[in-house]
Amino acid sequence: MVTYIDAASAPLKNTGAIRLYGAEDFEGMRRACQLTARCLDALVEIVQPGVTTAAIDRFVFEYGMDHGALPATLNYRGYKYSVCTSINHVVCHGMPEDKPLREGDIVNIDVTFLLDGWHGDSSRMYPVGQIKRAAERLMEVTHECLMRGIAAVRPGARTGAIGEAIQTFAEAERCSVVRDFCGHGVGRLFHDSPNILHYGKATEGPEIREGMIFTIEPMINLGKPHVKVLSDGWTAVTRDRSLTAQYEHTVGVTATGCEIFTLSPAGLDAPGLTR
Ligand code: MF3
Ligand code: CO
Ligand code: CO
């Protein structure tokens, strides 16, 4: 049984109930999410062959500090960085390191800023110099998966409609959907109910209601869907070492659909524009 609670009167822990937020809360989320989007915009110029992911981590930390925001991943469950940087066959939770990016790499940069108590969570793919057509196509398919998932969001539908839209498109494009990680409720908490699966059926999952806020963040592989987590406890990679991509937006459910809080003010959301 799912329960829905007024976010204003709910305890600040994940009890499994789904929080419904009001107009002022949406305004707080808009601000946090737009800061995240502007940071992701600024990274377009920074991601170049020779730049280390450690330098990207420092940039994101400074960007947060300069704008009164804390990177929510810093010391989150023992994670030590301000950002996740996931390169090529790394599915998610790649840790910044002192190794330079190389021409032809594709890297997902996932930023979550905590601003005035609100979490803005978004990620995009960045090509490093010239990339192969297969990599570009995977990024295009993955972004389209995200946008089709978002298009399925409306009050009365179930969260499974999001997963069905994503899985149907990904598999028609001969790609696979990672099952081990999902989108999530977000707002006052970084990771909250409900889980948003990127596969499944439209008849599954809780009903979507106005006032819900969650992420959609499909991870799509060129090969098989299976992943493994490396011995560092964080880095998730494709088992077959196939190329993988991810895009993430934070959305708020409105009366007729949803608002994408993390949309790029510069229009740099989609692949091909991110360069
Ligand atoms: N930002 C990621 C997400 O989309 C979570 C990263 S948690 C970390 O949910 F600890 F790995 F940083
Ligand atoms: Co997320
Ligand atoms: Co994220």
In short:
The chain is an alpha+beta fold. The protein is 25% helix and 25% strand. It has four helices and 17 strands.
Layout of strands and helices, then pairs:
Layout: E1 4-6, E2 18-20, H1 23-46, H2 53-66, E3 70-71, E4 84-87, E5 90-92, E6 106-115, E7 118-127, H3 133-151, H4 160-172, E8 176-177, E9 183-185, E10 192-196, E11 213-216, E12 219-221, E13 227-229, E14 236-238, E15 244-246, E16 249-253, E17 258-260
Parallel strand pairs: 1-2
Antiparallel strand pairs: 3-6, 4-6, 5-14, 6-7, 8-12, 9-10, 11-16, 12-15, 13-14, 16-17
Helix pairs in contact: 1-2, 3-4
Bound molecules: 2-amino-4-trifluoromethylsulfanyl-butyric acid (MF3) and cobalt (II) ion (2 copies).
The site of 2-amino-4-trifluoromethylsulfanyl-butyric acid has 12 residues, from strand 6.
Q: Return the average pLDDT rounded to an integer.
A: 97
Number of structural units classed as domains: 1
Helix content: 25-40%
Ligand names: 2-amino-4-trifluoromethylsulfanyl-butyric acid, cobalt (II) ion
The coarse overall form would be globular
What's the gyration radius in Å?
17 Å
The CATH class is identified as Alpha Beta
| β-sheet strand percentage | 25-35%
- The string of secondary-structure elements, in order, is EEHHEEEEEHHEEEEEEEEEE
Low-confidence stretches: none
CATH architecture: Alpha-Beta Complex
Q: So what's the oligomer here?
A: single chain
N-to-C CA distance: 45 Å
**What's the name of the CATH homologous superfamily?**
Creatinase/methionine aminopeptidase superfamily
Count helical runs: 4
Sheet with most strands: 4 strands, antiparallel
CATH domain fold name: Creatine Amidinohydrolase
Question: Helix/strand-derived class?
Answer: alpha+beta
Topology, number of strands: 17
